[in-house]
Structure formats: structure tokens, C-alpha cells
């Protein structure tokens, strides 16, 4: 008897066209196993955001299917799917709107019905995971940008998601904040899908990378191998920083 749990994410033949007729995805197949950290790479307009918005049901597949931990992304399952797929936006201010950090992190679980000591324990656990427990009673707007991003991650972790989707997590971070966030993400026991143009950060955090280009998966493999393929990179408008050698750095 096979007792293997289903993968965190399974996308099969996913195609999607916007109402204006623009075809954004052309039959995407992607499987992400539990606990994997995968970078989703590609030029602007490749379909990355469109794909991510299918993961929690904001977009509905024109063709194909999406399942999260074996649960189909369908209208009847949306409440549970949106708990399981936690999206951390590029701008933390899009997620933080309550008077205090504690209230921001508590908002999702409280809306789902958690109360009292159980809710407080969930909030403390999420803030501890991102190193922000001592800031629980601070107004979010008094925090640095890097601290606000960590709180935004905590608001998602408080929902105990199956998949953490990060949209450009390193953008606008100073070097120390960038490293602190990387340390936090490496320590999390959760599946991570990281959408980024920051190729060194992808290499540092994600052993596996997927290149989405013109609505299809153009490559899927070890991040270091993909980034070291100059012909592949050039064909899909991906450029490493000047002087950066991906073969000399191993992702962790």
C-alpha cells in the first residue's frame, strides 16, 4: 500500500487566456514535492504571476488542473486552498494593515475561527520563526522595510500553509536584511516557491529552479546547472550580475 503523501503542488496542462484574448499560459506541467524550495524564474511577461494566481484560485484554469497537497483548486475548495497557499507579496505594506504586528499576524487565523490561547500561541510561533516576537506590540509602520517583510512572512506562516509563495523576496532589502531573510527561509519546514529576478538569491536558497518563458516551462533542473548554461540564459533573457559565477556557489 502506497502511503506517500501527494506532492505540495501538481500542475497539469495548465493553459490560460485573459479576457482580452492574450494567451499567458500554454499547457504548463509542474510538480513540487513536499519540503522542496524551488525558484520560478523568467523574464517579465513570461506568465509567472499568472501561474501563481492559479495556485490559490484567483485565476481559474482555462484548461488543465492545479492541485495543492492532493486538493483540487476549485471553487468548492477555495477557503482551504487559500489557507494552504500562502503568498507573500513584494511590498509588505500590501499585507500589513492592522495597528500592531500582533494583530496583523493574528488576523488570518482569527478570521478562520481561532481564538484565545490557541490563537496567541499561533501568533507567537509565527513571529518567533521570523525573529520578530519582541516586536509584537509595535505598529508595523514603525519597523524597517526588512522587518516589515519578515512580519509579512509571519502573517502567512500563522496560517500553517502547505506552500509559501514568495514574490521577489529580496527586493529593496539591504545586505544584512537579505541575509537574515535567507537564514529564516532556509530554516522553515515548508514548501517554498520563490518568484524572483534575483538569480544569486535563487541559487543561494533554492536547489531547484524552473524557467517559465512565453507561457511554457522552458527548463527545470538544478539551479546551479541552469544558471551556468549561458545559451539557455540568453535565450530567455536572464542575466547574472557581472562577474558572478554560479558554478562557484552551491545552494543550501
Top CATH class: Alpha Beta
Shape: globular
CATH architecture: 3-Layer(aba) Sandwich
Q: Which homologous superfamily in CATH is the superfamily?
A: P-loop containing nucleotide triphosphate hydrolases
InterPro entries: AAA+_ATPase, ABC_transporter-like_ATP-bd, ABC_transporter-like_CS, ABC_transpr_CbiO/EcfA_su, Co_trans_ATP-bd, ECF_ABC_transporter_ATP-bd, P-loop_NTPase
Domain ABC transporter: 9-239
Membrane topology: Peripheral membrane protein
Family: Belongs to the ABC transporter superfamily.
Which features does this protein show?
9 helices; alpha/beta; 252 residues
In words, what does this structure look like?
- Helix content is 33%, strand content 23%.
- With 252 residues, the chain is of the alpha/beta class.
- It has one domain: P-loop containing nucleotide triphosphate hydrolases (Rossmann fold), CATH 3.40.50.300.
In summary, what is this structure?
With 252 residues, the chain is an alpha/beta fold.
Topology:
Elements: E1 9-17, E2 23-32, E3 37-41, H1 48-55, E4 63-68, E5 71-72, H2 78-84, E6 85-88, H3 101-111, H4 116-129, H5 145-157, E7 163-167, H6 175-187, E8 191-195, H7 199-205, E9 208-213, E10 216-222, H8 223-227, H9 230-235
Parallel strand pairs: 3-8, 3-9, 6-7, 7-8
Antiparallel strand pairs: 1-2, 1-4, 4-5, 9-10
Helix pairs in contact: 3-4, 3-5, 4-5
Amino acid at each position: 500500500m502506497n502511503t506517500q503523501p501527494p506532492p505540495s503542488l501538481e500542475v497539469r496542462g495548465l493553459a490560460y487566456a485573459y479576457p482580452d484574448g492574450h494567451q499567458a499560459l500554454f499547457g504548463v506541467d509542474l510538480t513540487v514535492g513536499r519540503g522542496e524550495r524551488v525558484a520560478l524564474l523568467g523574464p517579465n511577461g513570461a506568465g509567472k504571476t499568472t501561474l501563481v494566481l492559479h495556485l490559490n484560485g484567483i485565476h481559474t484554469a482555462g484548461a488543465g488542473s492545479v492541485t495543492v497537497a492532493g486538493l483540487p483548486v476549485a471553487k468548492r475548495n477555495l477557503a482551504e486552498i487559500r489557507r494552504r497557499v500562502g503568498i507573500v507579496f513584494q511590498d509588505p505594506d500590501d499585507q500589513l494593515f492592522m495597528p500592531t504586528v500582533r494583530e496583523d499576524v493574528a488576523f488570518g487565523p482569527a478570521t478562520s475561527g481561532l481564538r484565545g490561547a490557541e490563537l496567541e500561541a499561533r501568533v507567537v510561533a509565527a513571529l518567533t520563526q521570523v525573529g520578530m516576537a519582541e516586536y509584537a506590540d509595535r505598529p508595523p509602520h514603525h519597523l524597517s522595510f526588512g522587518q516589515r517583510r519578515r512580519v509579512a512572512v509571519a502573517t502567512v506562516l500563522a496560517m500553517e500553509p502547505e506552500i509559501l509563495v514568495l514574490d521577489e523576496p529580496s527586493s529593496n532589502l539591504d545586505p544584512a536584511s537579505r541575509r537574515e531573510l535567507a537564514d529564516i527561509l532556509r530554516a522553515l519546514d515548508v514548501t517554498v516557491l520563490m518568484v524572483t529576478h534575483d538569480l544569486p538569491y535563487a541559487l543561494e536558497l533554492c536547489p531547484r529552479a524552473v524557467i517559465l518563458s512565453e507561457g511554457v516551462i522552458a527548463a527545470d533542473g538544478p539551479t546551479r546547472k541552469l544558471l551556468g548554461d549561458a545559451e539557455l540564459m540568453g535565450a530567455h533573457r536572464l542575466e547574472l550580475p557581472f562577474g558572478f559565477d554560479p558554478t562557484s556557489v552551491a545552494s543550501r
